[in-house]
Amino acid sequence: MNIQADKKTIENTLLVYRQKLDEIPDDLFNTTPPGGGWSYGEVYSHIMQATLASFMAVDKCSNGTGKTITKPAGWLARFILFLGVFPGIRFKAPASIAGMTTNISKEEARNLIIKVKKRLDEIVPPVAASSQYCKIKHPRFGMLNARQWLRFIGIHLGHHIKQLNRISKKFAKG
Fold first, then answer.
1. Which residues of 25-34 are buried (b: 16+ CB within 10 A; e: fewer)?
2. Nearest-angstrom CA–CA distance, 73 and 50
3. Residue 139 contacts by C-beta under 8 Å, 6 or more apart in sequence?
4. How far apart are CA 174 and CA 168, in angstroms?
5. pLDDT 10s digits, 74-89
6. Do 108 and 40 touch, CB atoms closer than 8 A?
7. What is this structure's pTM?
């Protein structure tokens, strides 16, 4: 896993989130799409809050305050990290993460994107020197080290771009 490539993926995906934010009509941002599901505002809340929480895990792994575990990540985590995408299955957000999701405003979404970008620049430099055995538990994928967490963040951000596109299609069908 290449740390700088993962950082670039995250930066590029955040740029897509910012661009999409400008394209989403204001009156639809907090509206539940036809057929149900999260609104755009809820997706932005989820993905930015989950990214900030994941950064805390990267930080703990990087500064050595995670757990020392020599056992590799589980098969599902290794599979996803290797492919760089989630499989075609839709995962429900873990209750702990879904509970943090609220219907935020576009301005709050913009501010969270800025916060995530700033935090990314802070957490990436120490990742290279981090131990591959210092890990923090992911709610779905088990124990991950700093590099794995960083890779996961890029994959997770990309996954929710697809969700935003599905919401757009729901509104287009009306």
1. eeeebeeebe
2. 20
3. 94, 96, 97
4. 10
5. 888 999 999 888 876 6
6. no
7. 0.92
